[in-house]
Amino acid sequence: MRQQREGSPFTGLATVALKEAADHMTSARIHLVMLLVLLTAVGAVYAAIGQITETVSQDQFLFLRLFTTAREPLPSFVAFLGFLLPLVAIALGFDSINGEYNRRTMSRILSQPIYRDALLTGKFLGGLLVIAICLLVLWLLVTGLGILLVGLPPSGEEVLRGLAFLLASFVYAGVWLAVALVFSTLFRSPATSALATLTVWLLFTIFWPMLAPLIAGALVPVDPLNPMTAVDLVEVERAISRISPNTLFGEMTLALLNPETRSLGIVFSNQLSRALIGAPLPVSQSLMLIWPQLAAMIAALLVLFTAAYVSFQRQEIRA
Amino acid sequence: MSTVIETKGLVKRYGRIAAVDGVDLTVEKGEVFGLLGPNGSGKTTTILLLLGLTEPTAGTVRVLGLDPLRNPLAVKRRVGYMPDQIGFYDNLTGRENLLYTARLLGLSGAEASKRIDEALERVRLVEAGERRVSTYSRGMRQRLGLAEVLIKQAEIAILDEPTSGLDPQSTQELLDLILALSREGMTIVLSSHLLAMVQSVCDRVALFSRGRIGLSGRVEDLTSDVLGGTHVVEVEAQDVDLAQALADAPHITGVTQQRPGLWRVDADEDARPEIARRVVMAGGRLTAMSIRHTTLDEVYVRFFEEDRHHAAAA
């Protein structure tokens, strides 16, 4: 390197992050999205409680059912989160960088003694902070509702699983925040970046589950005389569908909130011999099960953030 | 006097277009230096290069003896910048905007609020400081930008088009503030495309054209070098050929007839008595005479016209 910069890239990081978080907390846009999330969450959990109390049965993990039980016509709390968390993240991030250009504050802020690194990282951390607070509030709300209405305190294991679920949701939302951040550095107009991010979100939420079997079918045609090709097809389809963060999040919540889940892939009957079907796994084993999914999501988050970083560092900041 | 800003052979290319094409600039401590020129002549790019906000293609920059690329934080801590069409966070009040800057500067809470109070007082935004910036007029935003420079207690203030889009009164207010800062020892670099207005505040100016500095120096020197005079006398007279009458007069550097009975006389001092005497001696009737200082606009037009003629001839 010809140029060696002096001074820490973290100067001003906390200031930017806290200011961003404070801005989000007071912005009408975020208030609306949060209100939507809160209402649907409370609705879903309330419906789940109704369902649970009607179908009383022996259940070791009654508390976790709060998250996963769906009652027609409402989907479960987990399904709602999988759908709405990306929206929250997109609302937080889609104008984070291009908004500074449009307000013409970019050159003024960068003429203060901070590096660009601090601005970008600070904005990302500020968004993550808001997501973390929002998720924690939701989680406590659901837990509180459960204790009040069902009258059952959660067991230690259920709390552990709940916390792991909280972490998974946090990383999932972080990925979508990073997607929004990338588009906000690539496009100068907030409307364009919002639309681009929403397009990606629609693609993965609605179209990816339809596309994955089609692509897999084209890649691995099933030979009726060779049963292994059918297995290959399923494996390929699974791999393709796992490109979508929504699939990864779905698998993580499945393993964490349904302790009976033993595998997230296909299982042959010979692998199940002498297994106690329906017997729950301990928390540590469930965590082992979702480890690859969690690692993949964190990796995706870092790759996306790096992309935003590179594109931002190369930008001309005039205007 | 010591040099606080120095650039040598500064070049910035965007693709094949050179926005800045070999700029050599020196600014001394305590002076008001004007970067003048039309839009797109490379003033803003030069400013961004000075602040290290963009990397030069070639050449060197030294600000307060530091390299803004190598040591950007130290430079940005000591240099205040007010961008063209300055923007603030509209949903925050003026004071909150300044507080954010103060935090980025790493000031403690008590020190920050003391400096903000002083700065708001100075730019007369004490009451408006509690209002949202979205309610501010253009002139108030510019003054808030100046308050930000004050909070930094900058040694150098770089102001990009500080008066553009302001009404005459706000312009005068802002220029007065700038002059006051200069008297307190702050070095000020300002850019503008309104030459005549800035002429009144600048000690030295550099005239930009197509990425180069065409001329630089003190305003009086430029006018006498290019136009040969610092004063322009307009003479209305009948029955006389002024060019002939003033042929060997002292201090007269040029006589041009603008229409019958009206001449423009360039002089390097107030030559009105001499002109009047010679008109009367030549038997003419003097009907009106007015004098004014030569403006930078005239220098600019004349110089770059010649520049273009040379370019066309070559």
UniProtKB/TrEMBL annotation, chain A:
The chain crosses the membrane at residues 32-53, 73-97, 118-142, 162-183, 195-220, 290-312. The keyword Transmembrane helix applies. One of its GO terms (cellular component) is plasma membrane. Keywords: Membrane, Transmembrane, Transmembrane helix. GO terms for molecular function: ABC-type transporter activity. This is ABC transporter permease.
From TrEMBL, chain B:
Residues 5-235 form the ABC transporter domain. SMART domains: AAA. SUPFAM superfamilies: P-loop containing nucleoside triphosphate hydrolases. It comes from the Bacteria. Pfam families: ABC_tran. Keywords: ATP-binding, Nucleotide-binding, Transport. Belongs to the ABC transporter superfamily. This is ABC transporter ATP-binding protein. It comes from Chelativorans petroleitrophicus.
